[in-house]
Amino acid sequence: MPLSSERKLNVAVLTATRAEYSLLVPVVRAMQERPGMHPYMIVTGMHLSPEYGMTVNQIEADGIEIAARIPILVGGDSACATSKSMALATLGFADHFAARRPDCLVVLGDRFETLAVCCAAFNERIPIVHIHGGEKTEGAADDAYRHCITKLSQLHFTSTEEYRRRVIQLGEDPERVYNVGALGVENAANVALMSLQELSDSLNRPLKKPFVLMTYHPVTVDSEGAEKECRALLDAMGRFPALNYLATQANADAGGMIINQMLSEYADAHENMIFVKTLGMRRYLSAIHECAFVLGNSSSGILEVPSFHKPTVNIGNRQKGRIAGESVIHCGNDADSIAAAMERALSADFREKAARAVNPYEKPGTSAAIADRIESYFSMDGAHYLKSFYDL
After folding, report:
1. C-alpha 278: how far from its chain's center?
2. Cβ neighbours, 10 Å, residue 362
3. Reported confidence tier of residue 380, pLDDT bands at 50, 70, 90
4. Omega of the bond prior to 2 within 30 degrees of 0, cis?
């Protein structure tokens, strides 16, 4: 049944990591601007962990309503710990959704905790809205999680037309799948950036140019290789003593703890590297604007960085399968391949190429389009939880 004119649409928005939160903020803001919508956040995962910077504090500082804080992380980063965290997420969110039923749940991306939460919502007959479905990351377990979330969801917002077709290929009705572009690109265009001095002051250390912005996550389909791969990355970085590095912490994935330990130890032993748990959206985007290039295997190197016309060195297979612009250099995860790619990113020819490159994820009005579609979809008659498999 459609909502009555007296009641607002209650939209729960899930956030578990710093990266996905920064993408969701403009969607929440867009829904707040609509009189008929009441968005609020449910916070879990890394946000509630001191080890990962207790980033729930940033959500509070942003003034966004937090309806619940549901801790789920189990100590350690093994496959067993991941499974136990998923179990805790299912238990915690089952209780939450039984006590407080939103009209829909908005989720973004492809992480293990997101899948567990979606299972709890699906069992409670809460419609799920999925952002950034249809993508491919063959080097990460997230690839499977993402497609599972798609099948649990009723409304879909993809970042390119190719990804929209893939969601439809998975059996989703084309009338419920919308290509709206990437939220990170919208952030890149609208956030007020900090100067280099402001950025340095916020880090309590001088950030000297030229510097490289680096984020490296474990390749979750082969987490046992995390130490070897990180050692190769640090070897390659050491071959460029004239460069400075600003590195951020890896995600709470299997293998992430050893990466963080190695990065911390490297930073302690090398004056040209600053290692932080988290930068937050504004500092992170400001660092992209000021850096020589971005290094690592984070999706932001492919999604947001091209809009700044800076080179990206994308290492290994974690992002394998994603559409990438011409400013992205793909390389292997051995030290020689990484060093060669870094040399190319520093070259005048490639920097000029990056300056001209077009970001394939750019599309205006992403967050507004998402808010509009959610509002209109849930104002229509019909059972929003039910759906049929769409045959091509």
Report:
1. 13
2. 17
3. confident
4. no
Three-state secondary structure call for residue 339: helix
Give bridge partners of residue 106 from the DSSP assignment: 13, 129
When the pLDDT of each residue in the chain is averaged and rounded to a whole number, the result is: 93
Other Cβ atoms less than 10 A from the Cβ of 5: the count is 6
What are the angstrom distances between the C-alpha of 81 and each of 77, 86, 93, 293, 376? 6, 9, 18, 34, 40
For 214, phi then psi, to 5°, come to -130, 130
- Biggest alpha carbon–alpha carbon distance for the chain: 64
Nearest to 88 by CA among 73, 109, 99, 107: 73
Using only C-alpha atoms, what is the Rg of the chain?
A: 21
Task: Tell me the two tokens of residue 279.
Answer: 């930068």
The Cα 21–Cα 55 span in angstroms is 10
Instruction: List, in sequence order, every residue forming a beta bridge with 296; answer none if it has no partner.
Output: 215, 314
Residue among 310, 337, 331 at smallest CA distance from 319: 331
Per-residue pLDDT of 206-216, as tens digits, reads 999 999 999 99
Tell me the DSSP string of 167-193.
HHHTT--GGGEEE---HHHHHHHHS-P
As given in the structure block, the two tokens for residue 21 are: 């939160």
Distance (Å) of CA 52 to CA 5, 48, 157, 307: 42, 8, 28, 27
pLDDT tens track for 217-252? 988 666 568 899 999 999 999 999 999 999 999 987
Phi, psi of 115, deg, nearest 5: -60, -45
Contact assessment for residue 243 and residue 210, using Cβ atoms and an 8 Å cutoff: yes
Contact 363, 185 (CB under 8 A): yes
Predicted confidence (pLDDT) per residue in 262-316, tens digit = 999 999 999 999 999 989 889 999 999 999 999 999 999 999 999 999 999 999 9
Tokens of 274: 């600053």
Share above pLDDT 70 across residues of the chain, in percent, rounded to a whole number: 96
**Residue found by looking up tokens 């499974």 in the block:** 83
Quick one: angle between helices 18-32 and 366-377, nearest 10?
60
Cα 214 from Cα 325, distance rounded (Å): 19
What number of residues does the chain have?
Answer: 392
pTM of the model: 0.86
Summarize pLDDT for 85-137 with one digit per residue, the tens.
999 999 999 999 999 999 999 999 899 999 999 999 999 999 999 999 999 88
Among 46, 116, 88, smallest CA distance to 256 is for: 46
* One-letter amino acid for residue 253 of the chain: D
